[in-house]
Design goal:
By secondary structure, this protein is mainly beta. Helices cover 0% and strands 45% of the residues.
């Protein structure tokens, strides 16, 4: 990748290809005018990896003068704990104005003219993290099937990872989980029917259904534990 410019494009349903932007060999980035501020492009030439990251702000807010308002920004593709996060604004007919930022920890800094008018906080436990399960699978009874879950924004080596499922018109059912060290535990009624493995180097979680039965028809979810001093709480 160090020898080429790398582009990201997208195609919305029923639409033609749309250019998002590109990154030059030296690292400079450029984006379509209509998408300015919505994406960032980075690369890791040592691993031959290209990344597209998105930042999605909250909806417009209309309030009376004197009211307190909180805006939010949902982050995907990066961990906020590794970056300084900035807020900027653009008044009608004016250029971009820098408001302030929060560093990799919790310290905040603001433009001199805006001191005391704003506060910036973040929740690194939720933003920037995602769990993406594999596509739907249709197989005959008796077959073995492996489902996968791609994790981003945190390391599976630091958490217990669960698989749960929901059969049609039923509640959620716990299948089992894998500990940080690799030990696995399953619901008593499902012993021997499943296996759970993970590849922490790729941040991938797997569930193998050893011999499909008609009653295994369900939506399967991967879930991360949030560890607390008092125990574990699913998130």
């Amino acid at each position: 990748m160090g020898s080429h410019w790398m582009f990201w494009i997208c195609q919305k349903p029923g639409k033609g290809l749309e250019s998002i932007g590109y990154i030059e060999r030296g690292g400079g980035t450029y984006f379509a005018q209509s998408l300015q501020g919505q994406f960032s492009i980075t690369k890791d030439s040592s691993k031959n990896m290209l990344y597209l990251q998105s930042l999605t702000s909250s909806e417009s807010v209309v309030e009376k003068p004197g009211k307190s308002v909180t805006l939010s920004c949902s982050v995907s593709g990066i961990s906020m704990g590794s970056y300084w996060m900035q807020w900027i604004r653009q008044k009608p007919g004016k250029g971009l104005e820098w408001i302030g930022y929060i560093d990799g920890g919790t310290r905040t800094y603001f433009a001199q003219s805006l001191q005391g008018q704003f506060s910036i906080t973040k929740d690194t436990n939720t933003y920037g993290q995602s769990l993406t399960s594999s596509e739907s699978v249709v197989e005959k009874p008796g077959k073995s099937v492996t489902l996968s879950c791609s994790v981003s924004g945190f390391s599976m080596g630091s958490y217990w990872m669960h698989w749960i499922r929901q059969k049609p018109r039923k509640g959620l059912e716990s299948i089992g989980y894998i500990e940080r060290g690799g030990g696995t535990y399953f619901a008593q009624s499902l012993q021997g029917q499943f296996s759970i493995t993970k590849d922490t180097s790729k941040n991938m979680l797997y569930l193998q259904v050893k011999s499909l039965k008609a009653e295994d028809t369900a939506v399967y979810y991967c879930v991360r534990d949030r560890l607390t001093q008092k125990g574990c709480r699913l998130v």
